[in-house]
């Protein structure tokens, strides 16, 4: 018999548990950083963490990928349970369905976890992707605190915030230079294309509108977490803090340079064995991410540019894109083409000397974290902005430019690609670029190390989670929150 019972006293209630529900936009580039954030959050001891994905994605995963006991994994519906976004007639149709059906099924999930003995207990906070604002609306309706998570750089986040909020006007003149609180000077072609009316705006109007409105709920959001680190973008972070409670918590790259844990495409690990036989810093790694679709003309120019650079290469060309490769290229080229690869392991391999990249933020941040110089070939969204930072702000690479000098989307010819690869690999500026890459690698690791800037910010956020859970427990009626009491709050 316990001491309390022996004294005739009622046993004290267990302390309330903080339980964060993480809601990424359902694509590889958004799930990966938010999953790593979830793992890091769970490792701090105390908060329970559950990540939401769609039914289609959950069923598509290797069971081993869902075996991490530190983070729970649950599914909601996006309305396309058999095929995800590929099943939808268009991206706009998918976004509409995700908003409507995702909202309904997320609300049902939250209500279910409020029931006695359900799962790991009720959720006390929703951490939502800025590209999933409907999740914040659900949280508000169910009286849950909502915290935004930006999978973009602080610079891109600030541009979307300032343009969407009317604080920054995009000039008609493409060569005009703009500046705002903390931002580096940028011309129109260096802004995120969906904020500047550029590539993708006309083809994906809902995505463009979503990009500009992703920070519109700041008045109803307690925090904005950003996958970057203070030392990388200090002035921009200071500018953001004038408009929101922003905390940098990145880079969200797995410890030990391993895999993220939820790969939606099957990676070819044989390429790592191929790299094992190559000299240090001798191979050019090329990848344009899981979404970009290059034209046949651009694919051919890249192929010839790589061949002309006279460096061996490892090029990721998704299966659906391999028909665009020039005839005979595989046989005559001095490299390897794979449909997908374990990118973190490739970037961490000593044989890799340069990364030809579209400058998606995940790829950019991974290269920075692993000290790999870059050749930037941005296509759209935030990629032109990231490319500008890679070349000018951080000095870790060069940008390959189309002959017309325009932004992302124009064809970049083989001579320019070859020139940029040679410049980064063994040109006059290669030593400076490599030294900068090593410097930023150290800074990235320091940020997430115990006592580093992102580690301190994460600790502050954990304290917020616990305080929120305690205040909710104190305000809850006897018996806790239920579906009926939630509608009354």
From TrEMBL:
<dbReference type="GO" id="GO:0080043">
    <property type="term" value="F:quercetin 3-O-glucosyltransferase activity"/>
</dbReference>
<protein>
    <recommendedName>
        <fullName>Glycosyltransferase</fullName>
        <ecNumber>2.4.1.-</ecNumber>
    </recommendedName>
</protein>
<comment type="similarity">
    <text>Belongs to the UDP-glycosyltransferase family.</text>
</comment>
<dbReference type="InterPro" id="IPR002213">
    <property type="entry name" value="UDP_glucos_trans"/>
</dbReference>
<dbReference type="GO" id="GO:0080044">
    <property type="term" value="F:quercetin 7-O-glucosyltransferase activity"/>
</dbReference>
<dbReference type="InterPro" id="IPR035595">
    <property type="entry name" value="UDP_glycos_trans_CS"/>
</dbReference>
<keyword id="KW-0328">Glycosyltransferase</keyword>
<keyword id="KW-0808">Transferase</keyword>
<dbReference type="Pfam" id="PF00201">
    <property type="entry name" value="UDPGT"/>
</dbReference>
